[in-house]
Amino acid sequence: MNISIVSVGKLKEKYLKMGMDEFTKRLGTYAKINLLEVADEKAPESLSEADMEIVKKKEGERILSKISTDAYVIALAIDGKMKTSEQLAADLQSLMTYGRSKIVFVIGGSLGLHDSVLKRADELLSFSKMTFPHQMMKLILLEQVYRAFRIMKGEPYHK
């Protein structure tokens, strides 16, 4: 299975990089992991709705350029469906069973995802109604994907 995470912005925090490196290494025994970062659009703190839409559109175009037509896309969105770790594991298992070997998770920038990305997504996934830093979400997502594989394989880790 090939799992990609496409995210907006460059990861700078060393502690997050270390955690991501660890889970990427652990996941290597289960799947090929590809972490893709697209540039975030520079924007001042206060933007009009129209300017926010322009920023999201530009970031969305960059995101979409990284997604192949045959990929199953799961976009992280606050309005998405919340799942337990077991449900995520079962859903990934089902995708693998039915030949969906390319899965792309998408994490938007600070303003969220453009409608074009949300429309391309096969599924919207929410981790919480709370807002998390999008860079931190990469680490949380990697950990949950790792946990899902451990659950699928019946291996110790999940509690």
Explain what this protein looks like in three dimensions.
This protein is α/β, with parallel strands linked by helices. The chain has one domain: 3-Layer(aba) Sandwich (Alpha/beta knot), CATH 3.40.1280. It is 43% helix and 22% strand. A five-stranded parallel sheet has the order 2-1-4-3-5. α3 links the parallel β3 and β4. α1 packs parallel to α5 and α3 packs across α5. The longest helix is centred in the last third of the chain and has 20 residues. The two termini are 24 Å apart.
**CATH architecture group name:** 3-Layer(aba) Sandwich
The CATH topology comes to Alpha/beta knot
Within the largest sheet, what's the order of strands?
2-1-4-3-5
- SSE series: EHEHEHEHEH
Taking the alpha carbons of the first and last residues, their distance comes to: 24 Å
Which strand-content bin applies to the residues?
15-25%
Mean pLDDT: 93
Please write out the topology.
Elements: E1 2-8, H1 14-27, E2 32-38, H2 49-64, E3 72-82, H3 85-97, E4 102-107, H4 115-120, E5 123-126, H5 134-153
Parallel strand pairs: 1-2, 1-4, 3-4, 3-5
Helix pairs in contact: 1-5, 3-5
Subcellular location: Cytoplasm
Function: Specifically methylates the pseudouridine at position 1915 (m3Psi1915) in 23S rRNA.
Protein name: Ribosomal RNA large subunit methyltransferase H
